[in-house]
């Protein structure tokens, strides 16, 4: 197996294949240091946690991650708790994507298995045959890898998807006029569970990484220049958008900040010949539902099982249903992420009709057990199948 990309999808797939005796080579364009520092998601569904445990890469997560049984939705000056564990029997785990990636890289390298960083000029060939090939340049030499299948786990700007013939895939997408400015701050989190705040000045999200690290976000324009946001302005907006009587948001040094634009995107099918797309290479969700990382992991759980059947038993039937199985989950997450995004963000023109609809929906999900359960079961993650 050739795996392009050492993000959560590629690394988890490599670990899963190794656990079943299937050989793979992982090719990554960036350096190890860059991949391990890339600050992104932080909410893991139970299915993701279970798979990382099964794969033997959970020791640090089990010791340090923080379990949450609910989230808060804040709007119209009040904070409302959605008791997800009570409603669904499941909770979420707060554990940074950077930490997941670090542990997967360490496991692979400790086992002495091939994972090449700073690989250049990756190209894929003969994907319509049963022996596709990947060419790449590494450490000054050209290489060619012949394999049973290629996993395109190279994210939204990778090479695998664009290298497929025109018309092979159908694309579905939606752009949003929103972006998130995210910060990592060296300060004790001011919250016990995540706060998603609807506010006339725009959405804000309070999350965390550890007892000493807070992860906070504010809604900005999709193409906002981070240079327009000195630290004081970020704190001012966070304070205004999350203010609550009797509660204070603690401030501290900002260690990192960055802007992410928001987009929904899916390709169908997630496969062409022996090239299989997984994670952000096949789909993108706006981050409001905390689904991006979890979808990447559930894709490769399905794909890994099918590839093991091919490589170990010579049975390609499971691979033929990979795309359809994964897409069912992907579209549910696409809908949930779009819905959460639409309910919580201030439209650019502040349309008052839209605002009243958002508030009506927020009141509904915080007052009806049926509506709260629907939000909760999607947020904690529907069973994998
Ligand atoms: P990636 O993590 O993107 O990994 C793909 C890998 O492929 C990368 O390491 C890349 O360097 C490598 N690659 C690319 N091109 C090549 C090539 N030509 N050759 C070799 N390797 C290549 N989700 C949330 O739920 N919450 C968040 O707060 C959140 N924040 C995000 C912030 C940013 C800036 C981004 C981009 C995404 C964010 N996401 C978030 C989404 C989540 O992080 C992704 O869904 C997740 O990283 C997907 O994992 P992946 O392995 O599919 O892709
Ligand atoms: C985080 C990111 C999200 O997209 C989200 O919905 C919740 C939390 C985080 O980075 O902690």
Radius of gyration: 21 Å
| Mean pLDDT metric | 97
- Helix vs. strand class: alpha+beta
Largest sheet: 8 strands, mixed
Helix proportion range? 25-40%
Number of helices: 12
**Ions and ligands:** flavin-adenine dinucleotide, 3,4-dihydroxybenzoic acid
From the N-terminal CA to the C-terminal CA, the straight-line distance is 24 Å
Beta-strand percentage range = 25-35%
Number of strands: 20
Shape: globular
Low-confidence region ranges: none
Main sheet strand line-up: 6-5-14-15-16-13-17-20
Characterize the structure shown:
This protein is an alpha+beta fold and 385 residues long. The chain has helices spanning 8-19, 32-37, 46-54, 59-64, 84-88, 97-110, 231-242, 292-313, 317-320, 322-344, 352-365, 369-380; strands spanning 2-4, 25-27, 43-44, 66-68, 71-75, 78-82, 92-94, 115-116, 120-125, 133-138, 141-146, 150-152, 170-185, 195-197, 204-210, 213-221, 254-268, 271-272, 275-277, 283-284. The protein has an eight-stranded mixed sheet. The chain has a six-stranded mixed sheet with strand order 8-2-1-12-19-18. It has a three-stranded antiparallel sheet with strand order 3-7-4. Strand 14 (195-197) and strand 15 (204-210) form a beta hairpin. Helix 8 runs antiparallel to helix 10 (322-344). It is globular and about 65 Å long. The relative contact order is 0.17. The structure holds flavin-adenine dinucleotide and 3,4-dihydroxybenzoic acid (DHB). Residues 4-10, 27-30, 35, 40-41, 97, 119, 122, 153-155, 158-159, 260, 279-280, 287, 290-293, 296 line the site of flavin-adenine dinucleotide (FAD).
């Amino acid at each position: 197996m050739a795996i392009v990309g050492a993000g959560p999808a590629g690394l988890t797939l490599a670990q899963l294949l190794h656990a079943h005796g299937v050989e793979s080579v992982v090719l990554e364009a960036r350096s190890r240091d860059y991949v391990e520092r890339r600050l992104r998601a932080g909410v893991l569904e139970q299915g993701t946690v279970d798979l990382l445990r099964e794969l033997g890469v959970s020791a640090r997560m089990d010791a340090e991650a923080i379990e949450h049984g609910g989230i808060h939705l804040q709007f119209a000056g009040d904070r409302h708790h959605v008791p997800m564990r009570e409603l669904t029997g499941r909770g979420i785990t707060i554990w940074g994507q950077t930490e997941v990636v670090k542990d997967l890289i360490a496991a692979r390298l400790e086992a002495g298995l091939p994972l090449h960083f700073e690989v250049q000029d990756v190209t894929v060939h003969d994907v319509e045959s049963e022996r596709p090939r990947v060419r790449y340049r590494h450490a000054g030499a050209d290489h060619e890898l012949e394999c049973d299948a290629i996993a395109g786990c190279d994210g939204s700007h990778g090479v695998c998807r664009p290298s497929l013939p025109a018309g092979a895939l159908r694309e579905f997408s939606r752009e949003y006029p929103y972006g998130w400015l995210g910060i990592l701050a060296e300060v004790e989190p001011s919250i016990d569970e995540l706060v998603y705040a609807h506010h006339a000045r725009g959405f804000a999200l309070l999350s965390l990484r550890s007892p000493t690290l807070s992860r906070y976000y504010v809604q900005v324009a999709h193409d906002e220049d981070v240079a327009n946001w000195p630290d004081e302005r970020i704190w001012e907006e966070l304070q205004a958008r999350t203010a609550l009587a009797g509660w204070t948001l603690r401030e501290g040094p900002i260690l990192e900040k960055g802007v992410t634009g928001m987009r929904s995107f899916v390709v169908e099918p997630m496969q062409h010949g022996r090239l299989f797309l997984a994670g952000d290479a096949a789909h993108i969700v706006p981050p409001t539902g905390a689904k991006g990382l979890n979808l990447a992991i559930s894709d490769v759980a399905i794909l890994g099982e099918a590839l093991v059947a091919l490589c170990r038993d010579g049975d390609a039937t499971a691979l033929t249903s990979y795309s359809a199985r994964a897409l069912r989950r992907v579209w549910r997450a696409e809908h949930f992420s779009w819905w959460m995004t639409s309910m919580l963000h201030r439209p650019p023109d502040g349309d008052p009709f839209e605002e009243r609809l958002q508030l009506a929906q927020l009141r509904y999900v915080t007052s009806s057990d049926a509506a709260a359960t629907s939000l909760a079961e999607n947020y904690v993650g529907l069973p994998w199948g």
